[in-house]
Each structure stands twice: as C-alpha cells, then as structure tokens.
Amino acid sequence: MSDVLVEKKDLVKSKLKEVFGYTQFRGNQEKIIRNILKPENTFVIMPTGAGKSLCYQLPSLITDGLAIVISPLIALMKNQVDQMNALGVNAQFLNSTLTKSEINRVKRESLDGSIKLLYVAPESLTKQENIDFLKRVNISFVAVDEAHCISEWGHDFRPEYRRIKEIIGMLGSLPIIALTATATLKVQTDIQKNLNMEDANIYKSSFNRTNLFYEVRQKKHAKKQLIQYLNEHKGKSGVIYCLSRKKVEEIAELLNVNGFNAAPYHAGLDASIRERNQDNFLNEDVDIIVATIAFGMGIDKPDVRFVIHYDVPKSLEGYYQETGRAGRDGLEGKCLMFYSHNDINKLEKFNKDKSVQERENARLLLQEMSFYAGSPVCRRKQLLHYFGEEYDVENCRKSAGCDNCLHPKEQFEGKDFVKTAVEAALQTNERFGLNHLVHVIRGIKNDYVNSYHHDQLKIFGSGDNESEDLWKSVIRQALIYEYLEKDIDNIGVLKVTSKGKAFAKAPTSIMLSKDHEYEITNEEEEGSDRPPPNAKAYDEKLFGMLKALRKKVAHEKDIPPYVIFQDPSLEEMATTYPTTAQELGQINGVGQGKVQKFGNQFLSLINEYVDEHEIIPASDVVVKSSVNKSKMKIFIIQQVDRKIDLDEIAETKGIPFGTLLSEIENIIYSGTKLNLDYYIDEVMDNDKQDDLYEYFLNAETDSISAALVDDDNSDYSEEEIRLMRIKFMSEYAN
Ligand code: ADP
Ligand code: MG
Ligand code: ZN
Question: Which tops the pLDDT comparison, 501 or 673?
C-alpha cells in the first residue's frame, strides 16, 4: 500500500469520529469508502436507513476537490446540506430554488475549492451553463444517489437520470459511486449499463429487515378496519400511504374527526404547509402522517411503528421502500397493506396514456404486486426473492414475522404439481411465460399453442382437472422456491433452474399452499361501513334504560324527551357504549353542548352498565364521518353568525328556501347551536313565537307533520313552525 493510501485509511477512521461522531462503520461502509477512494467505480445496494449517505459524504472530505452528489429530490438535498453544514462541512446545493446571487456564491465557492460536497438536481445538471461551469471545477468523484431512478423498471423512474452518464463524460473521467435501496437484478443491470459502470465493485447488503412484520388484508370496510387498527396502536407514530391527493385529504380528515392526531402530506399542498406537517411529524406533535409516495424519501425518523398502505402500491419495490421506513431503530415495525383487485384495476387505468412499452412495464409490476398479495408463501421470502436474495423461511416462521407465517394456510403435497410445471417449461424449451405454460398444462388450444404445436407435447392437457388459478399459484410458488426462474433478458419468460432440473429427474416432497382469495368488492367500501338502518344491532336492554333516563331527565327539567337526545342517538349509544365525554360527542346528533348539558347522567349509566356486563366497548368501532362539516354547512353557519338574511343565503347558494331550512335543521340536530333570532324576529311577531315555543315545550314529538295537524297551530305556516322548531331545539337541546 502506498503512503498516500495508508494516510487516507487512517483519515477514513478518524473522520468518522471527528466529523460524524460515530465510533464504528456499519456493514460495508468502510470497504465502500475505500473502494471509491482508490478510486474505483462503486455500486452500493443497501436497504433504506442502513447509511448510504456516509459512503459518499465521508470520502468527499478526504479527497482533493469537490464531490458532486446527484439526488432526485430538492427537499432531500436541503435536508442533507443542512445536516452537513451542522457538522461543519461546507456542502451546498445547486437547484432551481436558488436565486441568482445564491447561484453565484455557490459557483465561486466551488471554484475556489471551499465546497466539499455539491448536491445537484438532475435537471440542473443537464443545463448547458451548469455543465460549462462544472467543467472548470476540480471534481473528485460523482455520487448518484437513489440510482434506481435511472431504470424504468424501478418504481421511481426519472428520465433526466438517463443523461447523467453523458454529462459526467463531458466533465472528464470521473469515478462514480451509485447508491440505491432497491434493486432487482433487472434494475441493477439497468443502472450499471446506463452509468457505463459494468466494471464497478458491487456492495450488496442483505435487505432483510428482521424486525418488520408484513401483513396483507382484504380491503373491505377499509375505513373501519383502519380506525380499528389505529385504536390498537394509539399514540404510536405511523405513516399511511394513499395513492391520490384526494384520498390523502379524506383519510387525514377522517382520522382527525375520529380523534387521532394526523396530518396530510402530498405534492399539491403549499410547500410551507407540507414542511410544517413533516416537521410536526418528526417532532411528534403529529402522530400519523397520511401521505402520497411524495413523502418519505430520505426521511429519517427512527421510531415509526407502522406503515399502512391504504391503497395498493404500484410496485413491490416502491412497497418495500415505503415499508422500510418503519422500525428503523430496530424495534417494532408493522407493515399493513389493504389489498383489492379494484385498486389494481384503477391503477391500470392510470397507465392508459403511457406509451405501449411503459404501459406493459407498469402492468407487469402491478401483476407482481397482485401475486404478492395473493400468495400463501412467507411475505419476507417473497420480498427478498424479488430482490434476488435467498431466504430460509424457517427464520420468519420462528419469529412469526409475517401474516402467512403466523397463520399458515393449509398445505398440500405439491411434488406432482411442481413436476408438471417444470416439465411444461422444459418441453416448451424454456421460451414461454406463465400464461402459456398454464394453457399447455390445462390443454387449452389457442393460436399460440397451435402455431408451436404444443398440443402435440406429452405434457399437454395433463393438468386439465385443476383450475387455472391453481396452476398459476403452483408456478409462482415454483418460482419463489427456485425451481423456475425469470429470464433477465426476456421479460416474462420462465426458465428452469439447476435445482428444477435435478427435481425433474428425481422429484422430492414439497409442500405448497393455496392462494388467498380476495373477493371482488364493488367500487368503494364506503357506505357499507354502517349496519343497515333497520337491523336491530343495538343493545335493547341498554336502549330501554337510556330511554327511561331520558324521560326522567326530561321530567326534571320540564322539557320534552326528544330535546335531550333523539332515538337514533340513543340507539347508537346502545351500540357503541361511549364511556367518556369525548366518545359521547362522537355519536351522531350529539354535539358538545349536549355532552355538557346532559352527558354526565348518561355516561354514568353506560359506565355502570358496561362494568356490570363486562362489555369491552372499544371492540366495536364507530367511524365518524366528517359529512357534517360539508362546505355548505360551514358556509351557512358563517352566514348566520354574520346575521345574513336567510333568503339571501338561499339565493347566494342557489337553493330553495326549504332546502336551506333542511340544511339548518341538520346542523341543529347534529348538535351545533345556531341563533336565528335576528331573522325570526323580523318575520314573526312575539305572540306567534311564544305560542309555537309553548307548543314544542309540551309536545310529545318534534315532528313537523304532527305540529301541522294540531288545531292550535292552524294559523301557522310550515315555514314558521320549522323556524320555531329550529329556535327551540337550538336553545334547549344544544
Ligand atoms: P440511507 O440513505 O441508506 O437510507 P442514511 O444515509 O440516511 O440512510 O442513514 C440513516 C441513518 O443512519 C442516519 O441517521 C445516519 O446518520 C445513521 N448512520 C449512518 N452511518 C452510521 C454509523 N456508522 N454509525 C451510526 N449511525 C450511522
Ligand atoms: Mg439515502
Ligand atoms: Zn414469513
């Protein structure tokens, strides 16, 4: 070893402590750093959170000149630059957010050698003026972070990444270090090819995250399932991924309405709001972040306890990357995905406008996703297999690390099935994909089969008494257990591994299971969350007791019972057993006013009842929807607060007066006070008002039709009666 290298080696060790404050390298870090210092092309494949950044940050401090870091996200860059500056390292970024004078400063400091790390967005790198400027800078090496963005087989393809090599080439002959957390063999070869670094030394760490629990559930009544799950993880930090911005907003609101501390995050939000929500999450002012995949790349929060995919993700790579944000501290990390075929169909529709090739790629990625969800094989085994890593299922079984290992599906002897699958691939010369093999096995004649004369094969039709789904499942399991393998060069083609060839000669026992069956659910799960209205799902005994209490209180206060709580509210109480003021406030028709006025007596009754009957109330989840807060209602409340004429409000909103009254009634009946005196005083004299008020005070029911047929009210119009009922309910009940 030359003196220079010895000295550098010592520097590698000392800088770790001196600059970064760490005592030890993790995994391959030291080897990687020494490789790029040699300098040699370096390819780093390491799971999220393992410490890739250090692999280029540290060597940049030792080498002469400045290291360029290409990174796809501006937020990510800023984050890292801040961190480096805090460590006393001069790191800067060059991207579209800088002002002219900031750009000039960055350029000056790059040229005079004071900057050690220059982060550049790929789209800035491709600008001619930047290329011209970089040509004059003394560059030590180039780091391409999130290098999977180069491949359209990755989950995050960025076209500008494709030009990186060409531009680096213009800057001279520079060593490259490429880093990624996700690389199937396909993506890996793509990266190397595109960066022209087939010669690179590859450092691949295991992707296994032993502390993560993987689970897939059928997406059905998903909101209810979600709330239930979150109730079991109350106060813990978590991320919920949704596919659309709209869904993100909707779910964040749903969670807040249901008493969770959640904030949305998506690219459509104002940058300042997005930043605030992210900071609040990092600082634990917010427990749950509901986000599109725009959230999380590079986010380093160690104690995320769960990552939920509310919608099906677009690819297994994306999925794995996102779940990787759970349990970075090595403690509990739960990964739950809600799966529905419907989501897959929706995603396929999104791809409609893409080019034929892109669409086909996206379709295959989705297909993998769907296979994963349906497969009975250990999730961990499947995921690692997807990333080209072998894994012994026993380990996951022992620690019950996934749903399929925790609740294994019934097994059957698969020897003959796998033999048939392998034979089918062999007899068709290992040149076909899954669907064709299934056709051949099941003896289905089509043009394809005919043109290759595959109906002449010995294997043709030998499995015709089993279903198509079963054969597909068998072939996929044969793939995961490595009897078959995918051909890297020909997408979709299945070949037989040496293990498979040995097996075909002398088959041995292999246990298989059947796939999960996910029902085809209709459109959205919403609406079906509530029990049908006339099913008596409620506790009739408690309902009776609540009614009796209502009567007693009404009597004491000398008001009609319906003013206190309406029957549907009592029914809901007898279904969900609210035991705290907060829970009571979640019942439909019960606002905070009612909780304060009447809550205590009802709560103590329910509490006693629950204790006596040993009822566990939390087990039944009510999903409180936020419909009461619709824009229309908010508008009306604001207008009434400003004492705007009701006729004018109706006109502004373009609705009939009667509809406006119905909206107001809904507002009142869900527990919000509204003061309409300014309007009522104008349209009705005091006598009329007192008369109707008196009527409601003594009536058996608040029904309008009952009021209309009452002889005492014959002088009053329906509108007047409704207005007075609103006034009465608002004053008495809320
Ligand atoms: P990746 O880019 O691989 O997802 P990061 O580079 O963001 O991961 O690193 C994840 C975390 O690990 C960071 O908080 C980083 O400071 C920390 N880290 C990296 N290397 C070490 C080390 N050798 N010792 C202790 N912590 C480390
Ligand atoms: Mg990183
Ligand atoms: Zn498992």
Answer: 501
